Fold:
Amino acid sequence: MDRTKIIAGLIFLLTACGPKTHVIRVGSKNFTEQVVLGEIIAQHLENKLHQHVARSLNLGGTLLAQQALLNREIDMYPEYSGTALAMVLKAPRDADLPAEYSRRFHLAWLPPLGIDNGFAMVVRGADARARGLKTLSEAARMTWTLGVGYEFEQRADGLGALKSVYGFQFKGSPKTMDLGLLYKAIEQNQVDMIAANATDGLLSKTDLQVLEDNRHAFPPYQVSIVAREELLNEMPEVRAALNELSGKFTNAKMQELNYQVDVEHRALAAVAEVFLRSAGLK
Structure:
Protein backbone atom coordinates (compact mmCIF):
# COMPACT_ATOMS: atom_id res chain seq x y z
CA MET A 1 0.00 0.00 0.00
CA ASP A 2 1.46 3.36 -0.95
CA ARG A 3 2.18 6.10 1.56
CA THR A 4 -0.74 8.31 0.43
CA LYS A 5 -3.31 5.57 1.03
CA ILE A 6 -1.85 4.81 4.49
CA ILE A 7 -2.08 8.47 5.56
CA ALA A 8 -5.64 8.76 4.20
CA GLY A 9 -6.62 5.62 6.11
CA LEU A 10 -5.16 6.97 9.37
CA ILE A 11 -7.00 10.28 8.94
CA PHE A 12 -10.27 8.40 8.37
CA LEU A 13 -9.78 6.29 11.50
CA LEU A 14 -8.92 9.31 13.64
CA THR A 15 -11.96 11.19 12.36
CA ALA A 16 -14.29 8.26 12.83
CA CYS A 17 -13.07 7.51 16.35
CA GLY A 18 -12.80 11.14 17.52
CA PRO A 19 -15.46 13.04 19.43
CA LYS A 20 -18.52 14.04 17.41
CA THR A 21 -19.59 17.63 17.93
CA HIS A 22 -23.31 18.27 17.71
CA VAL A 23 -24.16 21.31 15.59
CA ILE A 24 -26.29 23.30 18.02
CA ARG A 25 -29.17 25.21 16.46
CA VAL A 26 -30.84 28.12 18.28
CA GLY A 27 -34.33 29.17 17.20
CA SER A 28 -36.67 32.06 17.92
CA LYS A 29 -40.14 33.30 17.11
CA ASN A 30 -40.73 36.07 14.60
CA PHE A 31 -40.56 39.34 16.52
CA THR A 32 -37.73 41.58 17.63
CA GLU A 33 -37.32 40.49 21.26
CA GLN A 34 -37.21 36.82 20.29
CA VAL A 35 -34.64 37.42 17.56
CA VAL A 36 -32.47 39.51 19.92
CA LEU A 37 -32.60 36.83 22.61
CA GLY A 38 -31.89 34.11 20.07
CA GLU A 39 -28.77 35.92 18.86
CA ILE A 40 -27.59 36.51 22.44
CA ILE A 41 -28.04 32.82 23.25
CA ALA A 42 -26.20 31.75 20.10
CA GLN A 43 -23.26 34.12 20.66
CA HIS A 44 -22.96 33.12 24.31
CA LEU A 45 -22.80 29.44 23.39
CA GLU A 46 -20.19 30.15 20.72
CA ASN A 47 -18.08 32.06 23.24
CA LYS A 48 -18.29 29.29 25.84
CA LEU A 49 -18.14 26.19 23.66
CA HIS A 50 -15.74 27.54 21.00
CA GLN A 51 -17.80 26.16 18.15
CA HIS A 52 -20.18 27.56 15.58
CA VAL A 53 -23.84 27.71 16.57
CA ALA A 54 -26.45 27.70 13.80
CA ARG A 55 -29.32 30.20 13.87
CA SER A 56 -32.93 29.52 12.89
CA LEU A 57 -34.31 32.86 13.99
CA ASN A 58 -37.65 34.37 12.94
CA LEU A 59 -39.32 30.96 12.65
CA GLY A 60 -42.91 32.09 13.19
CA GLY A 61 -45.37 31.92 16.07
CA THR A 62 -45.38 29.87 19.25
CA LEU A 63 -46.68 26.60 17.85
CA LEU A 64 -44.27 26.68 14.90
CA ALA A 65 -41.30 27.20 17.21
CA GLN A 66 -42.48 24.46 19.55
CA GLN A 67 -42.98 22.02 16.67
CA ALA A 68 -39.52 22.82 15.29
CA LEU A 69 -38.12 21.89 18.70
CA LEU A 70 -40.05 18.61 18.82
CA ASN A 71 -38.96 17.82 15.25
CA ARG A 72 -35.30 18.38 16.26
CA GLU A 73 -35.02 21.15 13.68
CA ILE A 74 -33.79 23.38 16.51
CA ASP A 75 -32.35 22.57 19.93
CA MET A 76 -33.66 25.50 21.95
CA TYR A 77 -35.51 28.80 21.84
CA PRO A 78 -36.71 31.43 24.37
CA GLU A 79 -40.30 31.04 25.56
CA TYR A 80 -42.72 32.80 27.94
CA SER A 81 -44.27 31.06 30.94
CA GLY A 82 -47.78 32.39 30.34
CA THR A 83 -47.63 31.42 26.68
CA ALA A 84 -46.30 27.97 27.50
CA LEU A 85 -49.11 27.30 29.96
CA ALA A 86 -51.93 28.68 27.81
CA MET A 87 -50.92 27.71 24.28
CA VAL A 88 -48.55 24.75 24.54
CA LEU A 89 -49.61 22.88 27.68
CA LYS A 90 -53.17 24.22 27.82
CA ALA A 91 -52.77 23.94 31.58
CA PRO A 92 -53.90 26.07 34.54
CA ARG A 93 -51.68 28.85 35.85
CA ASP A 94 -50.59 26.83 38.89
CA ALA A 95 -49.30 23.86 36.83
CA ASP A 96 -45.68 22.77 37.36
CA LEU A 97 -44.37 24.06 34.06
CA PRO A 98 -40.85 22.50 34.10
CA ALA A 99 -42.22 19.13 35.20
CA GLU A 100 -44.92 19.16 32.51
CA TYR A 101 -42.46 20.08 29.73
CA SER A 102 -40.19 17.25 30.79
CA ARG A 103 -42.98 14.69 31.14
CA ARG A 104 -44.84 15.52 27.93
CA PHE A 105 -42.07 16.56 25.58
CA HIS A 106 -38.68 15.62 27.12
CA LEU A 107 -37.83 19.31 27.06
CA ALA A 108 -36.01 21.24 29.79
CA TRP A 109 -37.48 24.52 31.03
CA LEU A 110 -34.41 26.41 32.29
CA PRO A 111 -34.25 29.09 35.04
CA PRO A 112 -35.81 32.48 34.13
CA LEU A 113 -33.69 35.08 32.36
CA GLY A 114 -35.17 37.93 34.44
CA ILE A 115 -37.72 39.28 31.92
CA ASP A 116 -41.47 39.31 32.56
CA ASN A 117 -42.91 40.36 29.21
CA GLY A 118 -46.63 40.28 29.86
CA PHE A 119 -49.31 41.81 27.70
CA ALA A 120 -49.54 45.58 28.19
CA MET A 121 -52.72 47.44 27.27
CA VAL A 122 -51.55 50.85 26.11
CA VAL A 123 -53.30 54.15 25.39
CA ARG A 124 -51.96 57.56 24.43
CA GLY A 125 -50.58 59.46 27.40
CA ALA A 126 -52.68 62.51 26.59
CA ASP A 127 -55.87 60.41 26.62
CA ALA A 128 -54.95 58.82 29.94
CA ARG A 129 -54.24 62.18 31.55
CA ALA A 130 -57.40 63.78 30.17
CA ARG A 131 -59.57 60.94 31.46
CA GLY A 132 -57.63 60.25 34.66
CA LEU A 133 -56.94 56.64 33.63
CA LYS A 134 -54.48 54.39 35.38
CA THR A 135 -56.10 50.93 35.43
CA LEU A 136 -57.89 48.60 33.06
CA SER A 137 -60.95 48.65 35.32
CA GLU A 138 -61.23 52.40 34.74
CA ALA A 139 -60.66 52.06 31.00
CA ALA A 140 -63.33 49.34 30.71
CA ARG A 141 -66.03 51.92 31.45
CA MET A 142 -65.26 53.54 28.08
CA THR A 143 -65.32 52.38 24.48
CA TRP A 144 -62.09 52.02 22.52
CA THR A 145 -60.82 51.19 19.05
CA LEU A 146 -58.40 48.34 19.67
CA GLY A 147 -55.30 47.29 17.74
CA VAL A 148 -53.86 43.82 18.37
CA GLY A 149 -51.35 41.31 17.07
CA TYR A 150 -52.57 38.06 15.50
CA GLU A 151 -51.87 35.82 18.51
CA PHE A 152 -53.46 38.17 21.06
CA GLU A 153 -56.80 38.07 19.25
CA GLN A 154 -56.89 34.26 19.18
CA ARG A 155 -55.46 33.40 22.60
CA ALA A 156 -57.55 32.58 25.65
CA ASP A 157 -55.01 34.45 27.78
CA GLY A 158 -55.17 37.45 25.42
CA LEU A 159 -58.30 39.14 24.11
CA GLY A 160 -60.55 36.50 25.65
CA ALA A 161 -59.13 37.12 29.12
CA LEU A 162 -59.33 40.89 28.70
CA LYS A 163 -63.02 40.74 27.79
CA SER A 164 -64.05 38.15 30.37
CA VAL A 165 -62.26 39.79 33.32
CA TYR A 166 -63.01 43.45 32.54
CA GLY A 167 -66.05 43.30 30.23
CA PHE A 168 -64.53 45.58 27.60
CA GLN A 169 -66.73 46.72 24.72
CA PHE A 170 -64.84 47.87 21.64
CA LYS A 171 -65.79 49.90 18.58
CA GLY A 172 -66.17 47.18 15.99
CA SER A 173 -63.80 44.22 15.73
CA PRO A 174 -60.20 44.65 16.84
CA LYS A 175 -57.86 45.78 14.07
CA THR A 176 -55.39 42.93 13.66
CA MET A 177 -51.89 43.68 12.36
CA ASP A 178 -48.22 42.76 12.66
CA LEU A 179 -46.81 43.66 16.06
CA GLY A 180 -44.42 46.13 14.50
CA LEU A 181 -47.32 48.20 13.15
CA LEU A 182 -49.20 48.69 16.43
CA TYR A 183 -47.28 51.77 17.54
CA LYS A 184 -47.65 53.47 14.18
CA ALA A 185 -51.39 52.73 14.28
CA ILE A 186 -51.89 54.42 17.66
CA GLU A 187 -49.60 57.31 16.69
CA GLN A 188 -51.66 57.93 13.52
CA ASN A 189 -54.99 57.68 15.41
CA GLN A 190 -56.07 54.55 13.54
CA VAL A 191 -56.69 53.00 16.99
CA ASP A 192 -56.71 54.46 20.49
CA MET A 193 -55.67 51.36 22.47
CA ILE A 194 -53.16 48.64 21.57
CA ALA A 195 -52.25 45.27 23.04
CA ALA A 196 -48.50 45.70 23.35
CA ASN A 197 -45.82 43.88 25.36
CA ALA A 198 -44.18 45.07 28.56
CA THR A 199 -40.67 45.14 27.09
CA ASP A 200 -41.43 46.94 23.82
CA GLY A 201 -38.67 49.45 23.17
CA LEU A 202 -41.02 52.28 22.27
CA LEU A 203 -42.81 52.20 25.63
CA SER A 204 -39.95 54.03 27.34
CA LYS A 205 -39.46 56.52 24.51
CA THR A 206 -42.96 57.75 23.63
CA ASP A 207 -45.87 59.44 25.39
CA LEU A 208 -47.88 56.30 26.00
CA GLN A 209 -49.55 55.00 29.16
CA VAL A 210 -49.56 51.32 30.16
CA LEU A 211 -52.79 50.62 32.04
CA GLU A 212 -52.40 48.55 35.19
CA ASP A 213 -53.85 45.05 34.98
CA ASN A 214 -55.39 45.53 38.41
CA ARG A 215 -57.56 42.39 38.23
CA HIS A 216 -54.76 40.16 36.90
CA ALA A 217 -56.37 39.09 33.65
CA PHE A 218 -52.99 38.17 32.21
CA PRO A 219 -50.64 35.59 33.75
CA PRO A 220 -46.90 36.23 34.27
CA TYR A 221 -44.79 35.85 31.13
CA GLN A 222 -41.34 35.11 32.52
CA VAL A 223 -38.84 34.31 29.79
CA SER A 224 -36.86 31.08 29.97
CA ILE A 225 -34.90 29.01 27.49
CA VAL A 226 -36.57 25.72 26.60
CA ALA A 227 -34.16 23.09 25.26
CA ARG A 228 -34.06 19.44 24.29
CA GLU A 229 -33.17 17.30 27.31
CA GLU A 230 -31.28 14.86 25.10
CA LEU A 231 -28.86 17.57 24.01
CA LEU A 232 -28.32 18.84 27.57
CA ASN A 233 -27.64 15.30 28.79
CA GLU A 234 -25.17 14.65 25.98
CA MET A 235 -23.48 18.05 26.41
CA PRO A 236 -23.78 19.22 30.03
CA GLU A 237 -21.55 22.16 29.15
CA VAL A 238 -24.47 23.55 27.12
CA ARG A 239 -26.73 23.56 30.18
CA ALA A 240 -24.00 25.23 32.24
CA ALA A 241 -23.54 27.95 29.62
CA LEU A 242 -27.28 28.59 29.28
CA ASN A 243 -27.71 28.82 33.05
CA GLU A 244 -25.19 31.67 33.06
CA LEU A 245 -27.79 33.82 31.27
CA SER A 246 -30.31 33.35 34.08
CA GLY A 247 -31.06 36.61 35.92
CA LYS A 248 -28.88 38.70 33.59
CA PHE A 249 -31.84 40.62 32.12
CA THR A 250 -34.43 43.11 33.36
CA ASN A 251 -37.50 44.50 31.63
CA ALA A 252 -35.76 47.87 31.32
CA LYS A 253 -32.69 46.28 29.73
CA MET A 254 -34.84 44.32 27.29
CA GLN A 255 -36.73 47.49 26.34
CA GLU A 256 -33.38 49.11 25.58
CA LEU A 257 -32.19 46.20 23.44
CA ASN A 258 -35.46 46.11 21.50
CA TYR A 259 -35.27 49.87 20.93
CA GLN A 260 -31.72 49.63 19.59
CA VAL A 261 -32.78 47.08 16.98
CA ASP A 262 -36.28 48.33 16.15
CA VAL A 263 -35.79 52.09 16.12
CA GLU A 264 -32.07 52.79 15.94
CA HIS A 265 -31.62 49.94 13.43
CA ARG A 266 -28.40 48.77 15.02
CA ALA A 267 -26.99 45.47 13.78
CA LEU A 268 -28.39 42.51 15.68
CA ALA A 269 -25.01 40.84 16.19
CA ALA A 270 -23.49 44.06 17.56
CA VAL A 271 -26.36 44.61 20.01
CA ALA A 272 -26.00 41.06 21.30
CA GLU A 273 -22.22 41.35 21.65
CA VAL A 274 -22.41 44.62 23.62
CA PHE A 275 -25.01 43.11 25.94
CA LEU A 276 -22.85 40.08 26.69
CA ARG A 277 -19.88 42.31 27.47
CA SER A 278 -21.94 44.55 29.76
CA ALA A 279 -23.32 41.50 31.57
CA GLY A 280 -19.80 40.21 32.24
CA LEU A 281 -20.29 37.16 30.01
CA LYS A 282 -17.61 37.94 27.45
